[in-house]
Amino acid sequence: MYQVRDLRLSFPDMTRKPLFGAAPRIEILRGLSFDVSKGAVLGIVGGSGSGKSTLGRTMLRLLEPTGGSITFNGRDITHLEEDALRPMRAQMQMIFQDPMSSLNPRRQVGGIIAGPLRVQGHDGIPAKVTEALDMVGLPRSFANRYPHELSGGQRQRVGIARAIALRPEFILADEIVSGLDVSSQAQVLNLLQELVRELGLTLAFISHDMSVIRRLCDQIIVLYQGEIVEQAQTADLFAAPQAEYTRTLLDAIPLPDPDQVWA
Amino acid sequence: MRDARGDVKRPIGLRLWLSGGWLILLVLAALLAPWIAPQDPLAQDLFTSRLPPFWEAGAEPGYWLGSDSLGRDVLSRIIHGARLALIVALVAGTLTCVIGTALGLIAGYYRGWPDRIISRFVDIWMAFPPVLFAILLIAVLGTGLTSIIIAIVVIDWTRFARVIRAEAMTQGAMDYVASAQVAGRKRMGTMLTEILPNVLPTIIALLTLEMGIAVIVEAILSFVNLSISTDSPTWGGMISEGRTSVHQAWWVLVFPLITLFLTVLSFSQLGEGLKDRFDPVLR
User: Fold this and answer.
1) Average pLDDT score, chain B
2) How many folded domains does chain A comprise?
3) Contacts with A209 (C-beta within 8 Å, 6 or more apart), sequence order
4) How high does pLDDT run on average in chain A?
5) Scanning every residue of chain B, which has its alpha carbon at the shortest distance from the alpha carbon of A147?
6) In-domain check, residue A8
7) Any domain includes A169
8) What is the gyration radius of the CA atoms in chain A, in angstroms?
9) Which long-range contacts (CB under 8 A, 24 or more apart) does B203-207 make?
10) Which of B180, B184, B194 sits opposite A120 (nearest CB)?
C-alpha cells in the first residue's frame, strides 16, 4: 500500500540563522525506506525526538518531504498539491496523540464524527455516525456531548470513531495511548485490534512503548535520530534484536517480576 | 446511561441582568426619545436656565435632572443623546469587529506573506497616537456621524486584528486543525468552521468592549467639538458644555458622565456575561 523510498525531511533552523543568508537546516528524517503492505500492522518505535511523529505526518502529507518519494496505492504523493490530495484523504486517516486538542472543543461529538463524512460528500451521515459510535463502544447519546464532558479514554474513542467513519484503507495512530491510564490503554488497544481485524485496516502504530507495540503489531521499524536502525517481524525482533538501540529499548520495558530486587 | 446535563441550571447572572437591563433601557429611550423626553432637547429658555435636579430647592417640575445655562432640559438631552451614542456603538463597533477579525484570522491562520503584510500594517498603525489620528481624520473628512464612524473603524481595527491573530495562531496549532486537513477540508472552510467558533468568545468580549470604546471616542470627539453639529445633543458635547459651568450647575456635567460610565461598563460586562452563559466549554 505504501512504498517509502529514501524519505528525507529537513526544517530551517531559525535559531541559528545568520543575519544574511539561509538558515542551516535540521535533518529530521534522513533517508527512510520501507513498505507497508495491505493489511499489515506496522509498529513505528523510537525514543523522543527520533522523528516518528514527523514520519507519520509526512506519510499523510501533512508535511511535504524535502527528498525521496512516497507512493500510496501506486500513486506518487510526494509533492502532490493539497487539491489533488483531497479526494485521496478519505483512504488515509489519522488518530491523534492528544485527544483533547484533536477534538474541536466547541463542537459536539456527533458533529466531530460527521465532519469528515460531510467534507467527503457522504450521504446518510446520521446513520454512519451512530454506527461509528457503536463500533467504538460509546453510547449513542454521546453524540450530543462536548469533548470536555468525556474522559480521556472516551475522547480517544471519539478520535477512533472519526477515523473509521470514512472506512479508510489506512490509519495512522500516533501515540494514541500515551496520554491514557493503564486500564484505558488496554481498552483502547483491544478496541483498535478488533477494528483492524473487522474492517481489514492497514495500520501504522507509532509508539515509544515496546510492550504496546509487541501486543499489536506484526512488523516493527525502529527509528533512531531520523534513521531506521532496525526493521523486522515482531517475533524476530523481540527474540533477537540486531541493533544496539533496539536492545536498549527492550531493556527499558518494565517487567512484572515479583522477585525483582529493588536496589 | 443517564444524562443529567439538562438538569443543570445556568442562571442568568446578576452581571447579565444589570448590564442587559441598562442597555435595554437605553435602547428603549433612544427609540422612543421624541415621545418620552419631557422637554424639547433643543428648546432654549433663559427663564428656566440652570434649574437644579428635582430633589433640590428651586427645582421645576418637568426638569427632573435640571437644566443647563441655556435652559435646555438635561434629561431630555441625555435621552436624545442615547440615539447617537448607540448608533455609534453598534455600527462602529460591528464594522471594526468584522474588519479587524477578518484580517486577524487571515494573518493568524494563513501566516506567510498575508501575515507579514497585515502585521506590518498593524505595527505602523499602532504607532500613531489614536486621539490625534482621530482628530486629523475628522479634519480631513469633515464632521458628521459617518466621519465619526469611519474614524473609529480606521483607528480601532488593529485592536481586533492583534488579538484575533494571536488567538488564531494558538488555535491553528491545535491537532483538530490538522485533523480537518486529514479529513480533506479546505483551508478557508477550516478557518471558518473550526477556528472561528473557537475564537468567537474572544470576539464577543472584544466587540462589547469596542462598543464601549466607540461611545467614549464619540464623547471625546464631541468634547473637542469635532463630533456632529450642536443641533443634535450628544453626551460628550454635554460634558464639555457642563465643564464650563461645573461650579454653578454641576448636574449638567455629572448626569451625562454617569450615563456614559454606566453604558460603557454595561457593554463590557455584557460581553463577560454572554460568555459565561453561552460558551459550551465553560458549562
Assistant:
1) 87
2) 1
3) A45, A177, A178
4) 89
5) B281
6) yes
7) yes
8) 19
9) B203/B97, B203/B101, B203/B160, B203/B164, B204/B271, B204/B274, B204/B275, B205/B271, B205/B272, B205/B275, B206/B97, B206/B159, B206/B160, B206/B163, B206/B164, B206/B271, B207/B93, B207/B94, B207/B97, B207/B271
10) B184
Which of B100 and B132 is assigned the larger pLDDT? B100
pLDDT at A145: 92
* Residue B53 pLDDT > 80: yes
Question: Residue ranges per domain, chain B?
Answer: 25-282
Distance from C-alpha of A126 to C-alpha of A110, rounded to nearest angstrom: 8
**One-letter amino acid for residue B172 of the chain:** G
**A62–B175 C-beta distance less than 8 A:** no
In B, minimum Cα distance to A104 occurs at B176
pLDDT of residue B2: 52
CATH topology of domain B25-282: MetI-like fold (1.10.3720)
Of A96, A146, A166, the CB nearest to B281: A146
Give the closest residue to A93 by CA, choosing from A205, A197, A169, A189.
A169
Residue A171 has pLDDT above 90, yes or no: yes
In a domain, A256, yes or no: no
- Taking only the tens place, the pLDDT of each residue in A108-158 is 999 999 999 999 988 899 999 999 999 999 999 999 999 999 998 899 999
**CATH number of A165's domain:** 3.40.50.300
Q: Which three cell numbers stand for residue A199?
A: 474492517
Q: In the structure, what pLDDT confidence band is assigned to residue A210 with cuts at 50, 70 and 90? A: confident
Residues of A with CB under 8 A from a CB of B: 57, 60, 62, 82, 85-87, 89-90, 92-94, 96-98, 101-107, 115-116, 119-120, 139, 141, 145-146, 148-149, 162, 166
Q: Is residue A140 part of a domain?
A: yes
Cβ-Cβ contacts under 8 Å for B62 (sequence gap 6 or more): B38, B39, B73
Q: What is the extent of the structural domain holding A99?
A: 2-251
Long-range pairs for B130-135 at CB < 8 Å and ≥24 separation? Answer: B130/B155, B130/B156, B131/B220, B134/B217, B134/B220, B134/B221, B134/B226, B135/B221, B135/B224, B135/B226
- What confidence tens digit (pLDDT) does each residue in B219-240 have? 888 877 777 766 788 888 888 8
Average pLDDT over residues B112-137: 90
